[in-house]
Each structure stands twice: as C-alpha cells, then as structure tokens.
Automatic annotation (TrEMBL):
Pfam families: AlaDh_PNT_C (PF01262), AlaDh_PNT_N (PF05222). This is proton-translocating NAD(P)(+) transhydrogenase. It catalyses: NAD(+) + NADPH + H(+)(in) = NADH + NADP(+) + H(+)(out). PROSITE patterns: ALADH_PNT_1, ALADH_PNT_2. In the N-terminal section; belongs to the AlaDH/PNT family.
Amino acid sequence: IATNAVLSATLTGIPYKQLTVGVPKEIFENEKRVALSPAGVQALVKQGFNVVVESGAGEASKFSDDHYREVGAKIQGTKEVLASDLIVKVRAPIYNSALGVHEADLFKTAATLISFIYPAQNPDLLKKLAEKKTTVLAMDQVPRVTIAQGYDALSSMANIAGYKAVVLAANHFGRFFTGQITAAGKVPPAKVLIIGGGVAGLASAGAAKSMGAVVRGFDTRAAALEQFKSLGAEPLEVDLKESGEGQGGYAKEMSKEFIEAEMKLFAKQCQDVDIIITTALIPGKKAPILFKRDMIESMKEGSVVVDLAAEAGGNIETTKPGEMYVHKGVTHIGYTDLPSRMATQASTLYSNNIIKLLKAISPDKENFYFDPKDEFDYGTLDHVVRGTVVMKDGKVIFPAPPPNNIPQGAPVKQKTVAELEAEKAATITPFRKTMTSASVYTAGRQLPELGSVVVDKGDPPDLETSPCTKLFCC
Ligand SMILES: NC(=O)c1ccc[n+]([C@@H]2O[C@H](COP(=O)([O-])OP(=O)(O)OC[C@H]3O[C@@H](n4cnc5c(N)ncnc54)[C@H](O)[C@@H]3O)[C@@H](O)[C@H]2O)c1
C-alpha cells in the first residue's frame, strides 16, 4: 500500500495543503529583495499551500512580518523556513556565515527550490543540491518565449534597472529633464542618449521621455531602433550597413569597422548630450567598450553617465563597476544592483513572476505536480517547464534538449555543464584562473545565450569574460 501511495503521489502530485512554502531572508550582501510579496503569499495560501516567512525577510522591501501574517503566513526562523518543502529565493543559496552553514545544507531531502541559479556558473552548488535530491527551478533559465513573458524575471529586473538608471541620472543632474519657459528664464530640455535598446534600454527611453527629456537611442539591431522610435526617442544610425541581429533576436558581436563607426557617432554626441545610459550587451561576451576616456572627458561639466553594462565590463572606459564617482566633472554611475535599489518594486514583480510560473507549471486545482518532458515543442508550456527545471530529484537535467519545431532564428542548443567545464579547463591559463573563480561568483548572464553565441560562432565559451549582468538577472 505504501508503494502505491508513493507511486500515485509521483503520478498525480501532492495536495497543496500538505506542502509548505518557505520564504527565507536573503543573506547576499546588500540584497534587499525578497522572493514573495504579501500578495504573492496570499495567492499561494489561496491555492492551499502553507507558507512560512522568515522574520524580517521582507523588511528591506518594506513588507513587515505583520503584512505576511495578515495574509496567512507563519513567521519563523531561518532553519525552519529553509526546511520547507518548497523554498523560494531571489539569490542562489550561499554559505550563511552567521549560522556557519550553507543554506542548501539546511534544506530537507527532496525539497523544491525556486531561485536564480545560473547552473552553468555554479557546478558546486548543483552538486550540493543533488546530494539533497533537490528539484530546482531556475528563474534565470525560463525560456524567453512569448508564453513565458509573465515569468521572465530577467526582463522584469532589467526593466527596473532601466527605469532606476534614469531616476539616478536625474537625481545627479543639475537641471530639469523637461524644457520650460518660465518668468525666471528659459530652460532647455535635458538630452539623453541611450545605447542598447533591449529591455533595460527601452525602459530607460520610456522613463526619460516621460520626464520630458529629448531622448536619442542607438542599437545594432534594426528592431530595437524601431522600438526606440515607437517610444518617441530619436533613433540614431551609422552609415555602415551591418545587421546586429544574432541568434534568437539577441545581439551579435559587431565588426571592428562598425564599432569604430558607432564610436565616431558617439564622440559627436558626447559634446551635445547631457546624460548617457549604456546597456549594450552581447550574450556570452564581455560588453563592448563604446565610450573611450577622451569621449567622456569631452562631455559638459555636470553631465551624468550610467553604465548598466558595468558588471559585464562596462560600455564606458571610465566606469568603476559598483561605484558612483565624478571623473572630470562627469558623474559616473556604475552600480550593479539597481533592481535591489528599488526593492519593493523588484520584489513585487519577482513575486508575480514566481506565482505565475507556479500556476502555469502546476495548473491542477488540488495537487502540486509538474513533469519535465524530454520531447516538447518550441514555445509551449512543456518547453517552459523543461527549460526552467534544471535539476529533478537530485539529477541535473540542464541544459534542456532542443525543442521540436524551433522557428528559424531561435536560440540553438546549449552546451552541457560538463562540456563547458571541459572547454574552460582546456583554454584557461594559470594566470587567469584566479580571475575566473572570481567571475564565477559575479557572473550572471544566462547560459542559453552564452551557448547560442558560442555554438553559432564556433568560439570556445569564454567564461572568464562572460558578462556578468547580475544586475539584469538576479
Ligand atoms: N519573452 C520574450 O520573448 C523576450 C523576453 C526578453 C527579451 N526579449 C528580446 O530579446 C532581445 C534582447 O533583449 P535583452 O534586454 O536581453 O538585451 P541585452 O541585455 O542582451 O542587450 C541589450 C542591447 O544591447 C544591444 N547592443 C549590443 N551590442 C551593441 C553595440 N555595439 N552598440 C549598440 N547596441 C548594442 C543589443 O542589440 C540589445 O538590444 C530583445 O529583442 C528583446 O525584446 C524577448
């Protein structure tokens, strides 16, 4: 009878009311986000789940313990929360120095973890989680297909980063964004140049435009220029014709000639604009340097530059990643934790992403159940489930096999962790070894893109320089 019960649970899942979801306090340095907002907890409680939240988990996001209690959560300590059936986190589990134990070591056997994971960059963590027979859903691996937009935490965090970049720039700029004619005098509008029209760049364009600035945008992809235009920004172009369109709509590395041509364009713009926000990234590569020191030094006193690519090396030569400082009269903002600096908003959207994901992958009214299949069609829910689940009952199932019916231009198959590790070991020099281990902890760009670019161009994956866009991702 016992075997039958286990078998039937495996086939049909476990009733929500028998499961506890744990929301721990994030312990990564300066991390202010929390994985579930009170509204998210309420949705899970309504579904039938029991929810436990660590005391103070939402404090930095302005969600008090009482908020969580009011919607039906129990407030508990670190150890109790991490011993839940489902653990929902923002950051991948790390060593808890206050308790002298790794967070994953406090998980119960066969728990489910939902979090940013970056499986390719974190093989040791995967090993640890495998020992505990954990099932892992990686928020950074949710396939970026239309059906999954509601669970795309990379995009929701990039959106916040783009907005916050404008708010910070406005805060450090000495003038209005909007032009005004007042009795006291005529005020010209601020001119904002945005490089890169991905999720973050377009969010910046929208925010700067709504504040009344004159906004210009540049991207190597024609589609992004169109999007700039639709937001009311002026798209800039270079004479050289070269498409920046890479695999799956992502950017490809541009030729030396193209980079030179765009830098020539930017050099002129530097003498005209007041604010520059850069977001140019190439999946799996170091961010291209697009603004040299002399270009920045040619900007007007009081100008502001925000380098959202800072963690991937930066688009601006004078950026100091993680720092804000003034160089020759130009304020440089190189913060790499912008979503966490808008913690309430970031937590709310991240929480929504998680709730939507859970509802989509386990649509049953009574039981929690999902089944990653190895055969699935591109853009379907099966694609989302298989892509997101990177470990099932302790078995690493990352990366997912390629879907059937891949439309032309969609990302190609990812490489396995073992393949990437082997290639890395073969190419790494002792000199760069230390650098690599450092970048592993800060790296964040999702692997599908890394894989797609690497496979597409036939290059070895350069994990040493692989951009860490933790800012956009975790
Ligand atoms: N669910 C979905 O369908 C989904 C979700 C998210 C993003 N997307 C799409 O994926 C694409 C990439 O979005 P992202 O936010 O991840 O981008 P990203 O953060 O990887 O890159 C930012 C931008 O930098 C641009 N760039 C690269 N090199 C440049 C250079 N030398 N000069 C100027 N610009 C340069 C890129 O073209 C890109 O638009 C977009 O088309 C976006 O709409 C789709």
